[in-house]
Structure formats: C-alpha cells, structure tokens
Recover the amino acids of this structure.
C-alpha cells in the first residue's frame, strides 16, 4: 500500500512531540532543569486561550476545564500532567477522543488583542490541532485586562 506524500509527516508528528518531552537536561531549553520544565509549578493554575475557532479554559492539578462559544459553560475532564524539556503537557479524553494540551515557553500573541502571553499552547483533540497562548498568575500576560 502506497501512502500519500502527506501521510509520512503526519505519522511522525506524535514521535516528534514525544522527542521534545524527554526528561534529560538539555542545555539552553527555557525553564528547564534536570527534572524537566520548571517555569510552571504543579500547584499553579494554567489559563489558556485560542482563536479560529475560539477556545479556552484552565487546568489546576488533574482537573481541566475546556470551553468554546458553542459550550460557554465548558466541560471538565481529568488529565495527567507530564513535564519535558521546554514545556509541559496535559492529557485526557474528551467525548471519547484524545485531548492533549502542550504548553511551551515563548512569547505568544492571540492576534486579537494587544496582549502578550509568556507561553504558547498547542491543543490536539482527536485529529484536530489548535494553537493559542497560555499564562499563570505568576507568569501573567501583559496588556489590557479586558481587551
């Protein structure tokens, strides 16, 4: 069976994500130590937001709240946290589909406001990938509170 040219890169995507999450200390990776990513403590609440389509939520401990314009009240799911070099991830299930949120250090703009966020957020639900921004109370965004 011959795969279309786009299939091999898609098949490699999960392997590349895992490669970036090793616990070996890599010199120069932002916010890392021998234990992995240290910029966001386990007890901190991570807020995240994205556009096109609009989505957002927060995660504290093992509880993640996720909302969209179609479900403003949101859903809460149980997630597991893991740390790697340069970021951390939260994994769970939403409506039977894998839900993976990856948060990495790096300046981020939501493209809709004058805010600047300290972290990028990559969300994968099933086969769909969304990109956005994230922040915590100790590493907050800069810019207007109510854009």
């Amino acid at each position: 069976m011959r795969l279309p040219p786009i299939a091999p890169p898609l098949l490699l995507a999960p392997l590349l994500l895992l490669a970036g999450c090793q616990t070996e200390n890599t010199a120069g990776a932002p916010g890392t130590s021998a234990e992995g990513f240290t910029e966001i403590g386990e007890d901190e609440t991570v807020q995240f937001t994205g556009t096109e389509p609009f989505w957002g939520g927060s995660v504290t401990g093992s509880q993640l709240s996720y909302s969209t314009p179609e479900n403003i009240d949101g859903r809460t799911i149980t997630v597991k946290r893991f740390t790697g070099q340069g970021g951390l991830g939260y994994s769970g299930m939403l409506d039977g589909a894998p839900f993976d949120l990856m948060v990495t250090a790096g300046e981020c703009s939501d493209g809709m406001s004058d805010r600047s966020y300290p972290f990028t957020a990559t969300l994968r639900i099933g086969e769909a990938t969304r990109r956005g921004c994230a922040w915590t109370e100790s590493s907050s965004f800069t810019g207007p509170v109510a854009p």
About this structure: Residues 44-135 form a domain with the Lipocalin fold (CATH 2.40.128). The longest strand covers residues 71-83. DSSP finds one helix and ten strands in the chain.
